[in-house]
């Protein structure tokens, strides 16, 4: 049922209003906590607040690409076209999150390092992830045959997903200007609750924002995307 267009549309349409409500709630809470509850950094000052956008969009960029790779794998193994469509719907959101992550990171870097960009391991691997998103989307539009485009993009997503753990562990594997992990680390969380709570609230907001946009994109693709009827019948 979940992997059939009719069942998927029914479930997501009924859940969309709730997703919008939770998205709005966590946005208000996250912004309030980030601007008023969270203190400025004793070294970085007010610019540290950009992390409440930068960090969650970085996490989401990695998670969405892994989701795309898993859906692509499911499509290739079980030949379920809806998995490929869902991966395509997620990719257009992921590429925006990756772009926001890079832009906010550059602004943050200019304020703390004095430069917009450095070719260190974390930044470079994140840029590669952004181009992976772009490459995935380009493959969808490169072939006139929809089935071939879906298969090519799926194979690309699976193999290029190797960059996701590289992005995550780049600060541990190589010397880098980027600060090491502050939350998912062996020594425990290294960030005060006054910053951790707003960060988690904003992360949850971005999760719900992704779900809302993913649902809307999925509906659009199922209804209007250039997938031939004979392919749809194989769902």
TrEMBL record:
Keywords: Cell inner membrane, Cell membrane, Cytochrome c-type biogenesis, Membrane, Transmembrane, Transmembrane helix, Transport. Its main location: membrane. The keyword Magnesium does not apply. It is a multi-pass membrane protein. It is found in: Cell inner membrane; Membrane. GO terms for molecular function: heme binding; heme transmembrane transporter activity. Required for the export of heme to the periplasm for the biogenesis of c-type cytochromes. Belongs to the CcmC/CycZ/HelC family. This is Heme exporter protein C. It comes from Candidatus Mesenet longicola.
